[in-house]
């Protein structure tokens, strides 16, 4: 899968199929080949590029089977875009006794021209025993291995594993070896019962076990309520039959939930029903007409949610959107709170900064990878300190920057400032998201006691700007890099207009620049050389052939990455080494270290300076 844009694990990408590319995140409306409620051109017009239908239902009906075998499934459904087919696994779970086996169903899907072919996995629910789920995982893998499909088509190896984190991860690892597409299965009972917190566990473990270059699908997950959270955790595609199932029950989808037609007083402006019917007229309409129009409304709600999610990814504000949406239902709130458990893992995929500011409304707003990262750094900063001084928010407000710098420079203490109810190093005051945050006034204050710094007599024993640079370097590149990159004697140039640090140089050569946008550093090759001995955490090794190009300033492509540190986070500076051990370039990671090792295409590091430049 090709990634065009990202926000943490969420991505906008392209999945290539024989019948065209699917732009993700995407929802595939479920098409029942027996009863086509919404014609496929209407589905296309509503913004859906791909659909899913059921190979088993087609196989079982003599008429449909013959038509599909003779003319292909695209002709049968009168749809020219990508079609995914399912295998009958879910029907076996619901009705029991599916007569066709795995190999037969896969061959059939292939024969009728499906683009994404699903194996006949074994459906398991959280109610199954561990040993049943374990054998379903192993048997599913054996089944996926036992089939071969035509070139260009994608094999969907379904991830099972119930609520067992290790089994989800194992299933996902195994399926990643042999599949092109990874649906997360066995989750319909969770979705139907609003068990979103459990779904968080399932999705995170499935995602972390999966190859990052494979699309992740959530079977049955296409409700606007939960989609943003699923996308944030790395789900790329969904399917939805609920648009029509809900329509049959006179239920209409909205961004935050579902409403009953009997209780509606009007239709919102965005709804295709608006201007066509009043709720009363729709209630009185014939059944087919009513189901059709509610289905169209529901598809529009899904489509609208997808656009919003895409915009959020582009803006880098998906976390905030998910936080906000989690207020829509207590079960979603519980799921949002569950995310905290995975912060150490999720943080590795989150960019170092974003364009959009962070909003802090209440204590739960602190539950995001940026704050997790800064808190983790702060606890090490405190651990290493001999002496600590805390500057309260009101102290900071009452004193000028130069007064504070003066106090700072006369002592050798760790300086903490209060920010959104937590304490953080003062040296990070201009970095993202500290500088770029908008906070509610009633956020809880720090309960810790602090000592008000006094303006003391005596000489300066350190320089605030230099210490600032050192702490930012430690934050970005790891412990021990600050003094290496900015030794005594570093010359600091500041902006005349803003007073902010712009560049740092040593012996007349620029070692790093500070970005106005997020307050972080960009290393020059000179700077990279200075920290090389302590920068394993932000280093990668590439093939000799690649190194030759990278040393001239050309980007690193994933397929040439031989080693990459798992600590590398997207958009942070990364040192590029050749296999022979020489440092050849410095640039910005386009993805996390884990992802770089798995992607076969795309840019891993955007090089900004090579050794030969
Ligand atoms: N549809 C909904 N859930 C599932 C599942 O677990 N496996 C398959 N193959 N289809 C599904």
What does this structure look like?
The relative contact order is 0.07. Helix content is 38%, strand content 21%. With 613 residues, it is α/β, with parallel strands linked by helices. The strands form seven sheets. An eight-stranded parallel sheet has the order 8-7-6-5-4-11-10-9. A six-stranded mixed sheet has the order 24-28-27-26-23-25. The model has no long low-confidence stretch (mean pLDDT 95). It has three domains: 8-348, TIM Barrel (Alpha-Beta Barrel), CATH 3.20.20.105; 363-462, no CATH class; 489-610, Roll (Archaeosine Trna-guanine Transglycosylase, Chain: A, domain 4). The structure holds guanine (GUN).
What topology does this entry show?
Layout: E1 2-7, E2 10-17, E3 20-24, E4 26-31, H1 40-45, E5 51-54, H2 55-60, H3 62-71, H4 73-77, E6 83-86, H5 89-95, H6 102-111, E7 116-118, H7 130-145, E8 154-156, H8 165-178, E9 182-184, H9 188-192, H10 196-209, E10 216-218, H11 227-232, E11 237-240, H12 242-248, E12 251-254, E13 257-260, H13 279-284, H14 287-315, H15 318-325, H16 330-338, H17 343-346, E14 358-360, H18 369-383, E15 388-391, H19 393-398, H20 401-409, E16 414-419, E17 422-425, E18 437-439, H21 464-477, H22 481-485, E19 491-494, E20 501-506, E21 509-514, E22 521-523, H23 525-531, E23 539-542, H24 544-550, E24 556-557, E25 561-564, E26 573-578, E27 583-589, H25 593-598, E28 603-610
Guanine binds near residues 86, 90, 158 and 185.
Give unreliable regions as ranges. none
CATH superfamily of the largest domain: Queuine tRNA-ribosyltransferase-like
- Supply the number of helical segments: 25
Fold-level CATH name of the largest domain: TIM Barrel
Mean pLDDT: 95
Number of domains: 3
Helix content: 25-40%
Rounded radius of gyration (Å) = 27 Å
Oligomer: single chain
Bound molecules: guanine
CATH domain class name of the largest domain: Alpha Beta
């Amino acid at each position: 899968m090709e990634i065009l844009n990202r926000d943490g694990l969420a991505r906008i990408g392209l999945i290539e199929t024989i019948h065209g590319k699917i732009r993700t995140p995407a929802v595939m409306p479920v098409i029942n080949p027996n009863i086509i409620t919404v014609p496929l051109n209407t589905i296309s017009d509503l913004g859906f590029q791909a659909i899913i239908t059921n190979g088993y239902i087609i196989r079982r009906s003599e008429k449909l089977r013959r038509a599909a075998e003779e003319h292909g499934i695209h002709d049968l459904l009168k749809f020219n875009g990508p079609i995914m087919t399912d295998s009958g696994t879910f029907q076996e779970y619901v009705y029991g006794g599916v007569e066709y086996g795995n190999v037969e169903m896969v061959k059939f899907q292939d024969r009728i021209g499906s683009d994404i072919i699903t194996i006949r996995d074994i459906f398991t629910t959280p109610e199954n025993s561990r040993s049943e789920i374990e054998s379903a995982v192993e048997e599913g893998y054996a089944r996926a291995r036992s089939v071969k499909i035509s070139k260009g088509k994608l094999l969907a190896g379904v991830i099972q594993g119930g609520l067992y984190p290790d089994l989800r991860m194992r299933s996902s690892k195994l399926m990643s070896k042999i599949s092109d597409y990874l649906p997360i299965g066995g989750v319909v009972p969770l979705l139907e019962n609003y068990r979103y917190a459990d779904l968080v566990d399932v999705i995170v473990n499935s995602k972390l076990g999966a190859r990052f270059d494979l699309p992740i699908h959530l079977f049955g997950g296409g409700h606007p309520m939960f989609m943003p959270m699923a996308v944030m955790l790395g789900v790329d595609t969904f399917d939805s039959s609920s648009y029509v199932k809900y329509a049959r029950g006179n239920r209409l989808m909205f961004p935050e939930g579902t409403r009953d037609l009997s209780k509606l007083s009007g239709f919102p402006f965005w709804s295709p029903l608006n201007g066509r019917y009043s709720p009363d007229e729709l209630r009185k309409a014939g059944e087919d007409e009513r189901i059709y129009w509610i289905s169209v409304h529901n598809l529009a709600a899904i489509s609208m949610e997808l656009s919003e999610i895409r915009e959020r990814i582009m803006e880098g504000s998906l976390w905030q959107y998910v936080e906000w949406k989690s207020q829509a239902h207590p079960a979603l709130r519980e799921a949002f709170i569950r995310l905290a458990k995975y912060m150490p893992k999720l943080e590795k995929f989150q960019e170092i900064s974003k364009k959009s500011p962070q909003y802090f409304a209440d204590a739960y707003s602190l539950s995001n990878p940026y704050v997790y990262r800064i808190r983790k750094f702060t606890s090490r900063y405190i651990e290493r300190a001999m002496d600590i001084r805390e500057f309260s928010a009101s102290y900071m407000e009452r004193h000028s920057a130069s007064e504070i710098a003066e106090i700072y420079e006369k002592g050798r203490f760790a300086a903490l400032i209060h920010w959104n109810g937590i304490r953080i190093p003062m040296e990070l005051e201009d970095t993202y998201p500290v500088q770029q945050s908008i906070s509610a006034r009633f956020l809880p204050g720090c309960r810790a006691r602090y000592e008000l710094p006094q303006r003391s007599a005596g000489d300066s024993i350190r320089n605030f700007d230099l210490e600032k640079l050192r702490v930012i370097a430690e934050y970005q590149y790891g412990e021990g890099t600050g003094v290496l990159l900015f030794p005594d004697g570093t010359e600091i140039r500041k902006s005349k207009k803003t007073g902010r640090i712009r560049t740092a140089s040593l012996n007349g050569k620029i070692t790093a620049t500070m970005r106005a946008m997020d307050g972080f550093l960009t290393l020059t090759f000179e700077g990279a050389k200075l920290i090389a001995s302590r920068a394993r955490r932000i280093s990668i090794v590439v093939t000799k052939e690649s190194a030759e190009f990278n040393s001239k300033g050309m980007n690193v492509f994933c397929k040439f990455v031989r080693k990459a540190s798992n600590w590398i986070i997207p958009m942070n500076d990364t040192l590029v080494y050749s296999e022979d051990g020489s440092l050849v370039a410095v640039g910005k990671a386009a993805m996390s270290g884990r992802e770089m090792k798995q992607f076969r295409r795309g840019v891993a590091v955007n090089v900004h300076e090579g050794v030969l430049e």
